[in-house]
Design brief:
Number of strands: 6
CATH superfamily of one domain: Winged helix-like DNA-binding domain superfamily/Winged helix DNA-binding domain
CATH architecture of one domain: Orthogonal Bundle
GO molecular function: DNA-binding transcription repressor activity, RNA polymerase II-specific; RNA polymerase II cis-regulatory region sequence-specific DNA binding; zinc ion binding
Distance between the termini: 20 Å
Shape: globular
Organism: Echeneis naucrates (Live sharksucker)
Structural class: mainly alpha
Main location: nucleus
CATH class of one domain: Mainly Alpha
Protein name: Forkhead box P1b
Subcellular location: Nucleus
Length: 625
Amino acid sequence: MMQESGTEATSDGQASQNGGTSMEGGSREGRPKSATPSVEVTAADLLHFQQHQVEQSFFTLLSQSQQNTGRKSPKPNDKQQSLQVPVSVAMMTPQVITPQQMQQILQQQVLSPQQLQVLLQQQQALMLQQVMYNRQPHHESFQEQQVSAQQLAFQQQLLQVQQVQQQHLLNLQRQGLLTIQPGQTGLPLHSLTQGQYCTTCLQHSTSAQYKKFVKTCGSDPNSFYSNVFTHVQVCLLMQTEDPSPHSHPLYGHGVCKWPGCEAVFEDFQSFLKHLNNEHALDDRSTAQCRVQMQVVQQLELQLAKDKERLQAMMTHLHVKSTEPKATPQPLNLVSSVTLSKSAPEASPPLSLPQTPTTPTAPLTPLSQTHSVITANSLHSVGPMRRRYSEKYNMPISPDISQNKEFYMNADVRPPFTYASLIRQAILESPEKQLTLNEIYNWFTRMFAYFRRNAATWKNAVRHNLSLHKCFVRVENVKGAVWTVDEIEFQKRRPQKISGSPALVKNIQTSLGYGPTLSAAFQASMAENNIPLYTTASIGSPTLNSLANAIREEMNGAMDHGNSNGSDSSPGRSPLPAMHHISVKEEPLDPEDHEGPLSLVTTANHSPDFDHHRDYDDDQGHDDML
DNA sequence: ATTATTTTAAACACGA
DNA sequence: TTCGTGTTTAAAATAA
């Protein structure tokens, strides 16, 4: 068979393929973000700081309890156990992230409502500040058209952020985490869509306040921004100035802020007790912490991307950037730490460094040690399992286009099933048909992850082609090509939408966070409003085709369900709880690719896929120890 | 707990 | 015989 798998199935037990050592490549990337523009050092920073504290507390708690528990996992097979969590490094720089990206976070549902709130507020504040900044003094000389154009662009971004928040609010409602007063119920969407309400204070505002605010602002953009800006700042200050008697990052307003907890306490002591009892170092807490780290990491990545996008927008509009360099920021996604609890005791699992509290300082979290860092950890995840697209009707597309560059460079396993990927590859081709080899090439070209262990995934590809009826082999003059039977493909996805009626309803409204679906849906909507959105950062023909394919899928997906309310779409279920990266306890494949995350930063050893060959060979060495 | 999907691994068949 | 393609079967991992 294939030459690859040096491990051959031999009797060597299962260990083979993943066996082993994982080498880490140390995380370099330390790019300090010290560059924080002075302009942004305001309320946004304060909030940012808040979030940071929360995150930090996770680590603190973990490492504390970690110390008095050297246990090995209860059950040898406890899956979920060894998750890896990438830790972001430079999360301190407030940057604007895209709604799409934000949605991913929301989908993952790992942030507590408070955390999300903070994040969203921060985003809004940032954008507003930028808007204001650009409207101020130094730009007065601009011609009106330019100014309004730029405002429009900003406004659109802002609206998108708001949409995300709106979605978030709904999620909270659905989860019963947020109580919306009767009179407030109708607020959300609508208003958001109009970009006319201050989401910053929504949480504690009353319907009356809201109305008053809207009235004050009117529909005039200038008035809107001016008022909102001021208003937001006030709100933010109010929030930050409301320190509880006993402050603790995980305790606020009498509620435990541990992700997903929400327990209410009369006093601080009760809270502490709760914290120690309910959130002690156990599988669950560890997993949550990992998730949190993952979230942060994701955020950073997205943040960087959106920042870049914003920069491009500003550049396009000839506006001076508030943020000097929003360029290709580091997608620090790469750094990660393996929390694998599974790692018995030996290596200190997560000695997560306590990150300093300096908001602006580089977090260099795990700067230390063994953290596996680099993409490695990310994909070392062994068997990939978490795939979320596919179901939910929304195959890759959206995500892919959004993170295409990321996947092309980072050795991270894409969260899509082989079937989805194969289909994508075929649909992207001009003739909607590809030979097996061409499919292989697409995989290697589009995903760094598939540049290794070729024998494995190629076998999987072949297997999928044969297995799924949706892939049809067509004899051709010079061999055979594979095509996609869309009908079949669509057929195989419907998956019952389990869940409460309420959930379904929300989802239908497209507000749900149906992971990919509604998120993607909204994203696509946004995209339609701002055409260049998706293609802005990319731009190659390939990407465009990808985007088109995506659109197609979007349409298809919409047909299925989301079409506004009435449908009965099968398929999406609420959150895909984050793709937990679970690592098999054992072995991680020896990674080799050091690809530090910084896709952006450094490594850009950009693949240059054009002359892609089969990267097959290149794997040989990695498999073997 | 059960079921349906996916992913991995592998054995085999076939033609070049 | 070796390879690249395809098919299948199984088992393990996951998602619902």
